[in-house]
Specification:
The complex is a heterodimer.
Chain A: H1 8-34, H2 44-55, H3 57-87, H4 104-107, H5 109-133, E1 138-141, E2 144-147, H6 149-157, H7 160-187, H8 193-223
Antiparallel strand pairs in A: 1-2
Helix pairs in contact in A: 1-3, 1-7, 1-8, 5-7, 7-8
Chain B: E1 5-14, E2 23-33, H1 38-51, E3 74-75, E4 78-79, E5 101-105, E6 114-116, E7 119-120, H2 123-130, H3 152-162, H4 169-173, H5 180-191, H6 194-197, H7 200-213, H8 224-228, H9 236-251
Parallel strand pairs in B: 1-5
Antiparallel strand pairs in B: 1-2, 3-4, 3-5, 6-7
Helix pairs in contact in B: 2-7, 3-5, 5-7, 5-9, 7-9
Classes of the chains: A mainly alpha, B alpha+beta.
Chain lengths: 224, 252
C-alpha cells in the first residue's frame, strides 16, 4: 500500500473515483433543474425541489463531499497533467499527426477541464453564492417562506448572451464527458475488448442526456 | 504500381550526440522505387551521403522483417509512419506520393534520450522488464503437450499480449510519454498463464514502480498507442494492468 496513491495508477484512481462521483452529481442536479419545466410560469415545483435540496440533512453532508470531489478531481487533474508534460521531454516533435489515432477531446481533457472550471466559477457566482450568502428573491409555497430560486434562474435565462455562455459551457462539458465516462472505468480496470464499446455507448447516451437536458431549460425560457 | 519511381524531399533530424541541440537537415532523393522499403530508402540516402564525403544518418534497424522492434523513426507525425500495424522496416515507399516532403524525427520522450540522429536509448524498457517481467521459479524444460490444459481464449489473449516487441512506438506516440501499453502487455501475457499467475500482483507493482521512477508519464486513455502499435496490442491490457495493480494494493 506504501506509495499507492502517489503512483501513476493511484493518482488516476483518484481522478476516476472523483470523476464518477461528479458524474452521479450531474444527474441529480439535472433532475432538480428539469422540474423547472413542470410549471414554467410560477415555478412552485422547482422552488420546492430547490428548497428540499437546500435544507435536508443528507444534502448538508453531501455538500462538503461534493466540494471535496471537485477539489480532488481538479487538483489531481493538474498534478497528473504537469507530470505528463514533463514525461514528454524537453525536445518537441515538429510534426504530430494524431487525427486517426485518438479523439480531439481525449487529447484536450485539461483544456476542456479548465473551460468547465471557468464556467463552474461563473455558475457559483450567479446562483450558489447568491442563494447562500446574498439576498435572493423570496416566495411563499404552501405557507412556507423560501428562496424564489425559480425567479433567480429564469430571469438570467431570459438574457440571450447568458444562455450562450451557459450552452457553450455544457458543450465543453459534453466533450469532456465523451472521453471521461468510459475512461473512468478503464482506469478502474473494469474494461475489456467487449465492454469498451458498450461503455463508450453508455457514456455517449449519458453525455447526450446531460447536455441536452441542461441546455433545453435556458432555450425554453429564451423562446417562450 | 511497384515499378514506379518517385522523387521526394526529406527533412531529417540530425543530432550529433545526447547533449547536442539538434536540427533538421533537408535532402532530395530522386528516382526512388516505390517497391523499396522505407529503410532501403534511408540506406540509399546514406550511400549518397557517404559518396559525398558526408556523415551518414544514424538509425536503428536489425531484422528488417517486422519482428525485432529495433527500427523506430517518427515519420510525418506518426510512429513508424503512415501505415497501420507495421514497423518502419515494413513501411514501403508506395505509401508516399511523388513530390512529397517527408519529416523524419527520432522517438521523443523524457525516458528515451537521443543517442545520435534518429537513434534513441530505449534501455528504460529493458529496466522495466528486469523489474519483474519474468517468472522467478524454474519451470523446467518444455512440458508435454496438453499436460497443462489452457483454455483456447486465454491462450489467444496471452499471445496477443506477448506479441509486443518492445519497440517503444506506444511511448513515442503517447501525448504523456507513458509506457502503459508496454507494461500492460508484459504484465498481462504472464498474468494470464499458470506459470506467471502466482507472481502477477507483485509483478504489476514492481514494473509500474519502475516505470514511474524512470520518468514515463501516466495513461490518459487516448488510445493512440494501440493504433500506432505495430503488433496491434490492445489497451484492454492496460485495463488488466490497472486491475492487477489496484487489487494488489488493496490486498496489501
Amino acid at each position: 500500500m506504501k506509495g499507492f496513491l502517489s503512483s501513476s495508477i493511484g493518482k488516476k484512481l483518484l481522478m476516476s473515483l472523483s470523476g464518477l462521483f461528479l458524474i452521479v452529481f450531474l444527474l441529480v442536479h439535472l433532475g432538480v433543474n428539469l422540474t423547472m419545466l413542470f410549471d414554467p410560469i410560477d415555478g412552485t415545483v422547482y422552488n420546492k425541489a430547490a428548497n428540499f435540496m437546500g435544507t435536508n440533512p443528507i444534502m448538508k453532508v453531501m455538500e462538503p463531499l461534493l466540494a471535496l470531489g471537485f477539489f480532488l478531481h481538479i487538483l489531481y487533474g493538474i498534478i497528473v497533467q504537469l507530470n505528463n508534460w514533463k514525461a514528454r521531454g524537453s525536445s518537441k516533435y515538429a510534426v504530430v499527426d494524431q487525427k486517426d489515432s485518438s479523439t480531439w477531446a481525449s487529447r484536450n481533457m485539461i483544456w476542456l477541464g479548465v473551460f468547465v472550471f471557468t464556467f463552474l466559477i461563473v455558475h457559483i457566482i450567479n446562483y450558489y453564492a447568491v442563494l447562500k450568502f446574498g439576498q435572493p428573491p423570496s416566495t411563499h409555497v404552501d405557507g412556507v417562506e423560501m428562496h424564489n430560486t425559480f425567479k433567480l434562474v429564469s430571469d438570467l435565462f431570459e438574457i440571450w448572451w447568458y444562455d450562450l455562455i451557459y450552452i457553450i459551457g455544457f458543450i465543453a462539458l459534453g466533450l469532456h464527458l465523451h472521453h471521461a465516462f468510459w475512461s473512468a472505468f478503464q482506469t478502474l480496470g473494469l474494461n475489456n475488448k467487449i465492454w469498451r464499446r458498450r461503455l463508450e455507448i453508455i457514456g455517449d447516451i449519458y453525455t447526450i442526456v446531460v447536455v441536452a437536458g441542461f441546455t433545453i431549460i435556458p432555450l425554453y425560457f429564451l423562446i417562450f | 504500381m511497384s515499378d514506379k519511381n518517385i522523387n521526394i524531399k526529406l527533412k531529417v533530424w540530425r543530432q550529433n550526440g545526447p547533449n547536442d541541440a539538434g536540427r533538421f537537415d533537408n535532402y532530395e532523393m530522386n528516382e526512388i522505387p516505390t517497391a523499396a522499403s522505407f529503410l532501403e530508402m534511408m540506406d540509399m540516402l546514406n550511400e549518397k551521403l557517404l559518396g559525398e564525403g558526408k556523415e551518414p544518418i544514424s538509425f536503428d534497424h536489425d531484422c528488417r522483417e517486422g519482428i525485432c522492434g529495433a527500427c523506430s523513426m517518427f515519420i510525418n507525425g506518426r510512429a513508424h509512419g503512415p501505415d497501420n500495424a507495421v514497423t518502419t522496416c515494413q513501411l514501403h515507399m508506395r505509401k508516399f506520393k511523388d513530390g512529397d516532403t517527408i519529416t523524419i524525427e527520432p522517438w521523443r520522450a523524457k525516458a528515451f534520450p537521443v543517442i545520435k540522429d534518429l537513434m534513441v536509448d530505449r534501455y528504460s524498457l529493458d529496466l522495466i522488464q528486469q523489474a519483474g517481467g519474468y517468472v522467478s521459479v524454474n519451470t523446467g524444460s518444455a512440458p508435454d503437450a496438453n499436460s497443462m490444459p489452457i483454455h483456447k481464449d486465454i491462450a489467444e489473449e496471452a499471445f496477443d499480449a506477448a506479441a509486443c516487441i518492445g519497440c517503444g512506438a506506444c511511448v513515442a506516440t503517447c501525448k504523456n510519454g507513458s509506457a502503459m501499453l508496454f507494461v500492460g502487455a508484459k504484465v498481462s501475457h504472464l498474468a494470464l498463464l499458470p506459470q506467471g499467475k502466482i507472481e502477477a500482483k507483485e509483478r504489476a507493482q514492481k514494473m509500474l514502480a519502475k516505470m514511474d521512477e524512470l520518468g514515463f508519464g501516466s495513461c490518459s486513455n487516448t488510445g493512440a498507442c494501440e493504433v500506432e502499435c505495430p503488433k496491434e496490442v490492445s489497451i484492454s491490457f492496460i485495463a488488466r494492468l490497472n486491475r492487477e495493480y489496484l487489487v494488489a494494493n488493496l490486498k496489501d
